[in-house]
Structures are given as structure tokens and as C-alpha cells.
Amino acid sequence: MNLRRDVFQAIADPSRRAILMLVASQSMTAGAIAANFDTARPTVSKHLQILTECELLKQEQNGREIYYHLNAKKMKEVADFIEPFRSMWESRFNKLESAMKKHKKK
Amino acid sequence: MKTKIHAEDGKQELFITREFDLSVEDLFTAYTEPEIVEQWMGTKVVQMENKRFGFYQFVTTDPKGNNHVFCGTIHEFVPNEKITRTFEMGNTPFPVQLEYLVYEKLTPNTSKLTMQVIYKTVEHRNQILQMPFAQGINWAHNRLEEITKSKNISR
Prior knowledge:
- The complex is a heterodimer.
- Helices cover 61% and strands 13% of the residues of chain A.
- Chain A is α+β, with helices and mostly antiparallel strands.
- In chain A, strands 1-3-2 form a three-stranded antiparallel β-sheet.
- By secondary structure, chain B is α+β, with helices and mostly antiparallel strands.
- Chain B has helices spanning 24-32, 34-41, 122-154; strands at 3-6, 13-20, 44-48, 55-61, 67-78, 82-89, 97-107, 110-118.
- Chain B has an eight-stranded antiparallel β-sheet, with helices on one face.
- Chain B is globular and about 40 Å long.
């Protein structure tokens, strides 16, 4: 049975989110990515495979090396990087509004 | 989606805009009355001098008991119009940021806030943007713990 591969499954894992953040700034080889984690290399490879299968990462052959880079278009589908930042402010401002309304009733 | 973020690629600034069901006076009060700031920022207000060259300092205690200090200096303070201030997160490698807060009256009962935040570099801005992406789940969890704790205390 094939595991369902979708972007939401991919970003549900903290290590995979860390990988995405890492390659967001520049393309990297699997080795360079793995060097940033304490986990075993095969574990990182598995994460890279999942991220590639759901198209969040793209592979690019450069000489002998395979570089991974972020597929920005696919990232957008995950309501993009900014969404958690936005919702953090949204909830803050919602609190501001209700705190102020409560304050005025006093 | 009342809150909008505008962060252009390759720029070291971002804009946060939000329209409120509050008069501009009330919106401004929510930013300047320590008791109310504490409620919506979820922080303790240690000091807040609402004037030009005034100093402000917030302290947030996380569930582990660690204190996080946020502070800065106010450079412009025009009631119901604007606040310009620096913002610094203590004990973090993040450089000081500059915040331009503009308050606008839309109708007698609605208002708009535009917050322009300028970071030292594009990379710093992007790190700040991505912080909740990586930590959102943890923060939500911590926040939940905090709320549960405070409820237990008040009982």
C-alpha cells in the first residue's frame, strides 16, 4: 500500500519543517542538509524523499551532486510561510479588540 | 482575515495591517494603557513611558519559568495618530527592530492600524517571519499550559 503523500503530511513533522527552513535560503546537497541534524543520515534521506515526493523540494543535478531546493510554488499551497506569523498577529489583535470592549463596559 | 501581512521578497521590512471594530481613540488606548496591553500581549508591563524618548519594557514568563524581556524606546508619540519605537528581544541574537505604528480613523467606531517593521537585514526579517512556522505548535502548547495554569490558580 502506498502511503498518501501530501504537503500537509510533509509539514506535520518538525524535522521536515526544519529541512524546509534550511533550504529556503539556498540549495543544498543531502550531505549538507544532514550535517545540520543529529539524526542518522538515512532518517534525513527519508525526510528528503517524502518532501520531494510531495513536491515541496525539487532535485537539481549539478555535476555529480544532487542539490535540493525549495519549490516555492508548492510552498504557496501550504498557505505559505507567512500564514503562522499572520495568524499569531490575528489572534493578538482579536484579543486586543475584545479586551478593549470589555474594558469599556466597566 | 482581518489581519494582513505584506512582506515583499528581498526587502528588510514588512507591513502588518488590521481594521478594528474600535474607535481610533480606543485602539490607541489599547496600546498605551498597561493593564490592557498586558491582556492582549500576554505579557507583564514593567515600564511604559508614553512620551518621546520614553522607555518601555515587557516581561513574559514562559511555562518553564524563564523570563523573556522585550524593550525599546519611543521616538514619536502622537495620541490617536502614531507611535514610532524600537523593539528588542532580550537574550536573543535578533538585532533591534524599528516599528512605525500608524493609527487611522475609518468611521467613528472603526479604525485601522498599519505597523511597518524594519529589520537589520532581509535574512533577519525572514527568520522572524518563519519563527512561528517552526515553533507555532510549541507556542500553542505553551499558551494552552499557561491558560490552564492561570485558571487553576484563580480557582
